[in-house]
Structures are given as structure tokens and as C-alpha cells.
Amino acid sequence: MKNSNIRKLLMDRSIEGKVGATMPSIDVPLQTLPNKKFLRENLAMPEVSENEIVRYFSSISQMNFSIDHNFYPLGSCTMKYNPKLNDDIAGFPGFNEIHPLQNIDTIQGALEIMFDLQNILAEITGMSGTSLAPMAGAEAELAGMLMIRAYHRNREDFKRKKVIIPDSAHGTNPASAVMAGFEVISIPTDTNGNTDLEALKNVVDASTAGLMLTQPSTLGLFDTNILEVVKIINSNGGLIYGDGANLNAILGKVKPGEIGFDLVHSNLHKTFTQPHGGGGPGAGAIMVSDKLIDFLPDPIVTKDKIDKFDLSKPQKSIGKMGAFHGNFGALVRAYSYIRTLGKEGINNISEDAVINANYLRIKLKDTLDLPYDRICSHEVVFSAKTIKEKYGVNALDIAKRLIDYDIHPPTMYFPLIVEEALLVEPTETESKETLDEFIETVKTICEEAKTNPNLLHNAPHNTPNTRLNEALAARNPKLNWRNTIEEAN
Amino acid sequence: MPGAKKIMVNEYQSTYSPNTPKIKKQMLSDIGVDSYKNLFSDIPEKYRFPELNLPAPTSELDLKNELSKIANKNSTPGDYSSFLGAGAYRHFIPSVVKQITSRSEFMTSYTPYQPEVSQGTLQAHFEFQSMVCELTDMEVANAGMYDGATSAAEAVLMACRVNKKLKVEIVGTVSPLYTDVITTLTQATGIEISYNNIETILQNNNDEAPACYVIQQPNFLGEISDLDQLKLLSNKNNALLIVISEPMFLSMYQTPSYYNADIVVAEGQPFGVSLAYGGPYAGLFACKKDYIRQLPGRIVGETIDSKNKKGYVLTLQTREQHIKRERATSNICTSVGLIALMSTVYMALQGKKGLKYLSELCYHKSHYAAAKINNLPGFELQTNNFFKEFAISCPIPVKEVNEYLHENKIIGGYDISNFIKNGMLLAITEMNSKEEIDNLITLLSQVKPL
């Protein structure tokens, strides 16, 4: 019953005549409608009653794992607790109902929050200016790359066409650099997990526009070569972009601007708890040093002598990143989060996140391979290489088996440079008790790999679907209810 | 301090970090270090542990009080009647939308990379794609973009990939809020953008075909373009026709497929999403199936599992940045899932009849208002054929009109003086009662040149 009914799509639930919402009355005299040839004949939307819709969406929601229900140690994604208070504050009518094109005098409160948040993020990252316009981390990367391009062109240096990116980077880094017109040069990571300095020196020249570096890296390691990296790039006239995806690891521990980064973005949905929403919305703030302030995306919030706030376009701005001023709802949540924690709480985030990750590292280093055996930051990368060689069970099998224990799998097969990678990010909001349970579960699963490998190969066992055929989905795309497939049995 | 016997942690306890200082000391001892500071020794010493100049922690009660005061500094539609649109519209949002989208299972889950534990999100995305296809009458839709403007910019990039050309023609009056974003996102690609009106393009037969024509229907000033002309445009050459539209309009009027559009994009906000000072919103993106491999963004597809049961997965991922890196169709990494879900629930609730009814209601109200305003001395209707939004010219500068309206608890229309002298763009939806509209008209009748 559960599966057959729950999986029935809205269109298959539709019965002519049912209504899902009440309609407001027509209080004006009826006007002449346009000629029929201008109007659409049919709108094939479902007809389902309100209570049925509520039960449908409530039921399908329960097929999800979520932070509020499960430990979700998805490496590189910072799945921490999303405080409920933030949602309430973002829902204040004075924030939630205001129109983006209202006159400046009528939205001073909104601008005040944005102005404060700009300054707070600049303070945390050691930068001079912030734009909150990008609507996601990837959009902030693109903004940053466009600013690097604009900076060099403004100096009439048109040769700088290359951006260097380590092979451990997120896929968005090279994709963003290309959208900004750059050629991507990939460089390897050394055996300790740091930037390979020799490789870097070999590719840096007068055509280098800059370097994109995630610090700490996607391996969960703070690059100890950082000062040399900065020196090599700077001495060649390039700029250094910091992918702030892992900012959670360094809040109050180091300011990227102070060690030589020229730009850094922050994924407000990671570090500053905008809920992930099953894949967005996010928000990406971009912070820059003095020399790039004039190029920031439009708008930034400014304050004049009489404390009046305004939206301003920086002098040499790369332009608008969206129709309006960024994902304001996410900005309010980030602001509320930062203000709740304050200086002391913000300092604790990275301390607690790093303790949790290192605790997992120590407790599981004899169970899984640890490719980089050194103190890690907020996440730790393990490998299932040995287990695979011994028992034929791979990282995917272990990940899927974790689901049977109600734990969301870690990030698998990323970073790409680690074989059979399992990237585990516990975050600071998990208790030692939860971590201990996780440790025991991983040990149990690795034991099962030895004694009953099929249990892992066929996992998960108790989910609405067993492993899904992704190849079939791509080969024969069924992307809407006009062309769905019949269930095969 | 390193070397000291006592294990060192921060003593501050925040509500979101469950491990107490005592527990943390035990964990550090298991890790084998004396102080949390040892865990940060990879950071160059000179730059380690900078001072953070931030305010002190604030309690929930204090923060709510403080921020509620700040929120109240804004003039909020609801307290004010509002006639502002220009790309973001105030429509009624049924209670169910917020209740469903506030469910933790939807709100606090990640992108559905692990389909076995994300079927709720995936099935909802599939419903979204399906309804966007119905609304736009297109063959395929993705799971959502950042907003309508970035959807338009991505459509331009996609058309240039499909036709392997770098020339783009923006046709007629497209929102400057959208063309600004198209300009930003194409500035480094070599794409050349030109602006023309449709008559000029249709008359000129010698030009080389661009990668695409971009139109807005209805256009920025609310004008609905002639469908036969649009047919001619779409059939003129092999350039793709990109249509920027609006979901409530699409619920009532002839769909872009009628004039053979190739890509349809729209701001999804009017369907169940709060104005929220401009975001987060969700961009709709739909097209003909021929271009499926060039689509940007997340796409959910139906498949079967190892026991032959139907289920959903993210699909065609070889287009995307996490697989293709520098060769991806876009750097986008989100589908704005929760916002797309708001629109999904909204469309489910309104259904076939509700969307038709609501769109016609907007039509009746806006046409009622427009006719009355057109009769006021000094005011003139500037849009001939419109749906819910229209342009007027005022006898005095719009800024002054709006100041007067604001004093009387009305947020007036958008100032379009750079398009029309003393021009104002007014949007009227089901949220504007006849009483509000009549009040607006009374106040406008009091506006006279000095």
C-alpha cells in the first residue's frame, strides 16, 4: 500500500471537479476578455482537493533523510543544524513581504541588515568590501572570476587568460572560470595534500590571471604551503581567489585576507545555516581586498553621513548577478545566526567542528584507509581501497549500507584524486554520542564487508527504492508526466 | 598553552554545539593533543587566532525584539496597498504552501545525490518539471534556476552553444533588470548583443542569423506582442526564439509554443513565493527536447530500481560541473529546490480551474483600474494590449506621485521615466481590492501639475 499509493503522481490523482484552493470574489465589474485566439485553450493542471494535496506532499516528504532527522556527514556540504529562530525572523512581514523595487526610503530596515552583514563578513574574512548579490556559491565564484578579469583589463593587461586550479577543487571552480572567459590550468596536489609548489611554479607566468584555492582544501586539510603559494602568484602579478566552501573550519582561526587572499566567497547556506532545502536556495557573498572593491557586483549597500542606507553600484562593477539584490531571505537568516552566536559562539564553531572531525579521524583510522595521516580540519577523507581489494566491497557499498542504519552517506568518490573516497564532515552541531554511534556503525559495516559482502552490495534494504538505475534514466530520459514509464512489474 | 598539562578548550557553550567543554577535553585527549589550538597548527603562526571584532552573543528573545524593530522600519505591503510589479508580483499564497515547505524533510535535506533517501525531493522536483512543461507548453523543463533573469542569461548561453554563434538579438522592450544580467553573464564569452525592434528585424532580410532572438511576452511595459509577428520572427531563420514570460500570464494566454518558441524562461516567484525583497526566487526554464543535452541545471528523471520499482534520480548529469568541470553547460549547482517546491505546491492547489480563475481576476481588476486612470485628466494609458500590468504617464514626475501615495499608505508603481516621460508601471493582482483601486484613483485624481 505504502509504495503504490505514495508514488502516484498528482496528475494520476486528478479527478475533474475537485478544487484545492478557495477563490477570491470578483469585486470589480467584469471587463471584456480578449479575443479567444489570444487565449490558451487548455491548461492541463491537476484537480486535487486541498487535504489530499497536504497528505500527498507530507507523505512523499517522509521518503527524505534530513538534518532534523538524521546524522548527515556529507563532506564538503556542511550539513549543520539550521536554527529555527532564523526562519521565524526571515518570516517577519517587514522582511518577507517587501518588494525589491520599493523606494529606498521605505526599506531602510532591510538595507540596515544587509549593511551590517557586509561588514561582519568582511571582518570574519579579513577583507575590505562585500557584495551580497550572488545567489549561490557558484555564482559568487563567477562574480569573483569576472572581477579578476575586469581588474587585469582595467590595468590594460590583456594577456592574463589562465586560471590555475588544484585537482582537488570542486567542479564549480573550473566551470566558473570558463564562464568568465579563462582557460583552466589544473595542477596536482602533493603527497601531503598540499598544493604541489613545483607544479605551480612550472605553470605560473605572465598569462596567469589568478589561482582558485579552497582553504582548507576539499581533502579537509589546511594547505601548509599557503604563504609560498601566495608569494608565487603575487610575484607574477596574479590574484588569489579563495573558495570559502570550507570557511566553517577557520572562523576566528585565520582571516583569508590577512594571509594574502584577494577575494573569498562564503556559501551562506553552509557556514551560516540557510537551510539547504533539498538543493537550494543558497546564497553566496563575495568579499574582496581594497584593490578589487570598485569591481564588486551591483549592488552593495552604503551608508551616508546621516545614517541613511542606499543601494550603490561600484564604480567599475562587473554588473548585476540577478534581477534584484541577492537572496535576501538567506541573508536575514545568516545575520540572525551570526548575531545569536556572537563573537564567542562564532569562535566555537570551527573549534568544535575541527575537534569532531579529528575525533572521527583517530577513531576510524584503523578501520578505513586514511590517505592523509595528519591533523585534519573540519572534515576527514577516508578511503575504502583496502576493503575493496580484500572483500570486493567499495565506497559506494559502504555508503549505501550506512543508510540502513539511518545515517546519510558521506560524500563519495570526491575529491576525485582519492581512490574510493569517503569524505566525512560531522560539523560542530553533532554530539560526541552521535559520533560514537557513527564510529561503531562504520566498524560494524566494515565487519559485514568481511562476513557478508552481499549485504553491502544490495544495500540499502529498507528505503522506498533500492538502488536506482541511473544509466537507464540518462539513456531514455523521462522528465515529466507526459512521458512517464509503466512500473516494470 | 601548548605543553601545559591541563587540556585547553574554549569554555563558552553555545546552544548549537552539544559538546560541553568537559566532553571536548575528553575528545582532545583521545585525539592526543593538549589544546584545541594544536588542531590549528597548520595555519601560519603569525596569522593564527586573529581577534574577531563581532558583537556579543544575543538571546533569542532579545534578537527577535531587536530585529522586529528593524523590520518595522520598512513599509510593508499589506500595511500599505501596493501596485508595484516590474518582475516581482504580490499574489496570494495559500497557507498550505508554507506548511508543506516548512517541513524539515524538505527544508533541511541536501541536493538529492543519494536517491534512495531523497525520493521525496526527487518526486516533488519531477512534479515541478511536469507542471512547468504544462504551463509553458514545452517538452522539457529543468528543476529550477536562481531567478528569472539568470534563466534568461543561461538561455542565451545555451542558444549560443546550440547554434555555435556569438550574436544575440534582444527584440523590443525587454526588462532592463534582465538585460543587465544577460550582459553580466555573457561579458567574458565574446557574445555580442544588439537591440532591435521586431519590425526592423522582420523587414531586414540580409542580416546573418543570430544565435537567438530574445523577446519578453508581455514586454517590460506590459504590452502583449502580436502573435502573428512573433510567428514570423520564429520562422525567419534558424535562430532560436527565447521567450521571457510570466507564469500568471501563461495560465491564461496563448502559450509560446503557438508561435514556435524554442526556450521559455520566467520568474517563478508569482506562484507561491513571498516577495522577500527580491529573493530567494526560482527561475523557470523549459525548452524543446532537441536541446536537452545543452540544458543548464539539475534535471530529475524517472527510472526503475534493482527490484523494478519506479523511482527518480538526478539525470543527464554529464552536462554538469561536478562531472564535466570546465566543459560543463553551466557552473550552476542548485535547483533552488525549496522555492521550486513552493511553486509546485501552489500550482497543485490552484489547479486547472484556479489558475484560469486567478489570471482572469487579475485581468478584470487591472483593466478596471487602467480604464479609470486613463479617464483622469493629465494621466494617459500607455499600454494597449495588456494582462495585469500596464504603463501610464502622469502629469508630474513619478517620484512626486509616489511620495504623495506613500503618505496615504500606498506603494505606487515603478518609475519608468527613462522609457516614457513621467511614466509609471502599475501591476494589479487579486491582492488589490476594488476599494484599494478606487482609493488609488481618487488620490491620483488629486495629483495635478503645479
Give your account of this protein's structure.
The complex is a heterodimer of chains A (489) and B (450). In chain A, the strands form 3 sheets. Chain A has a 7-stranded mixed β-sheet, with helices on both faces. Chain A has a 3-stranded antiparallel β-sheet with strand order 10-12-11, covered by helices on one side. A two-stranded antiparallel ribbon of chain A has the order 8-9. Chain A is an alpha/beta fold. Chain A has helices spanning 2-6, 10-13, 50-61, 84-90, 93-96, 108-125, 137-154, 172-179, 197-203, 226-235, 328-364, 385-391, 395-404, 432-451, 453-457, 470-475; strands at residues 129-131, 162-166, 183-187, 208-214, 239-243, 263-267, 284-288, 300-303, 309-312, 380-383, 411-412, 421-424. With 450 residues, chain B is of the alpha/beta class. Chain B folds into 3 domains: 1-55, no CATH class; 81-91 and 353-445, Aspartate Aminotransferase, domain 1 (Alpha-Beta Complex), CATH 3.90.1150.10; 95-347, Aspartate Aminotransferase, domain 2 (3-Layer(aba) Sandwich). Chain B has helices spanning 21-31, 60-71, 95-101, 104-107, 119-136, 148-163, 176-186, 198-203, 227-235, 247-250, 321-324, 337-374, 398-407, 434-445, and strands at residues 81-82, 140-141, 167-171, 192-196, 212-216, 240-245, 263-267, 283-287, 300-304, 310-314, 380-381, 389-393, 410-411, 414-415, 423-427. In chain B, the strands form 4 sheets. Chain B has a 7-stranded mixed β-sheet with strand order 2-8-7-6-5-3-4, sandwiched between helices. In chain B, helix 7 (176-186) links the parallel strand 3 and strand 4. In chain B, helix 3 packs antiparallel against helix 12 and helix 6 (148-163) packs across helix 7. Chain B starts with 20 loop residues before the first helix and ends in a 5-residue tail after the last helix. Chains A and B meet through helix 3, helix 4, helix 5, helix 6 and helix 7 of A and helix 1, helix 2, helix 3, helix 4 and helix 5 of B.
